[in-house]
Amino acid sequence: MIKKIDEIFLKHPREKNVSYFQHLCVSMSLSVYFFTASIQAFIHALVPCYFETSSSDTIRILDDYMKNTYKEE
Known about the structure:
Elements: H1 2-15, H2 20-46, H3 54-69
């Protein structure tokens, strides 16, 4: 049972060489970016002159964020 819990909660963070809490913080910050981008994309779909570049800007920002957060060793 403990092995299964360990696998569920810790396997992926260990693969990224971070603690569970560090992984939690990174994932939560990403969820805020995704939520914001989703709202902006929805508004853009309704009113095309708003948030014209927000989706591509978000992709660039998140790509840079992920490259600098989880550096491969």
